[in-house]
Amino acid sequence: MAEKGGYVFYHYTPSIAAAIIFVIIFTILTIAHTYRMIKHKLLFCLAFTIGGLFETIGYIGRALGHSDPQGRNAYIVQSLMILVAPALFAATIYMTLGRLMRATHSEHLSPVRVTWLTKLFVAGDIFSFFIQGGGGGIQASGKDGSKVQLGENIILGGLFLQIIIFGLFVVVSIIFHLRMKKTLSSKNVGIVGWEKRLWVLYLVSGLIMVRNVVRVIEYILGRDGYLLAEEWPIYIFDALLMTITMTVWLVWYPVDVKPGAALSGDVENGGRGTRLVGIGRKGWPVGTNGAGKYSGAA
Question: What is the rounded (10 degree) CA torsion for 191, 195, 200, 205?
Fold first, then answer.
């Protein structure tokens, strides 16, 4: 147990082996994400990449905590970086949904005007980011119990806000998903790619949601609760889940969410080679034939 000024930093000596393993993992993933972002010129993925950098720095802080468990600076760095990194992942996830709608020309199927969709979710995410960051700073630098408790309560508020935002995001995604499927089904058209992109969004959102729920339970239980008294929960419910999140996003990188991108796969139209570009307002698929000319009704 490490204590300074009445505040317990750790109830254990942080494992340097576990910390170094995840420093290496997040460094590799962040470099890979940076490469793909630059290669495909997807600047909206910058927040996700910075999130990976934050994770890397956070676990460097935990590694330093092994040799100096009472080091306040290292503790603050790991506490803040690991806490707020998923909010940066979320920002890119929110922006991807709006770009998916535009890429398939299906904005009218969204329950929220697309011009507001990204702004609302990202604004809420940024607000949550600063709430958690501010609370984390107060908690980590607090020298008495009341200051620490205040910081924890602020963090809880930020986490609850992020969970609510994620919940609304999933609801909007599902409504769009169902409307898209219904529209395509009514026109006897089958496509695959756009739906795969939505399932990727569901998966990474679910992983971050689980992490956030565990974090909420952690702060509700308090400093003496099991989740903070043991080290393994942060690696299973945070480091591992965020590793999977970064890996899934890297494998299914959103290179296809651009207007005119062939993300939707071949339209099942008897093998005539038409590519679906989007869904017109009249509900008919709008696509391109082999010669690149548009077909269908907008």
Answer: 180
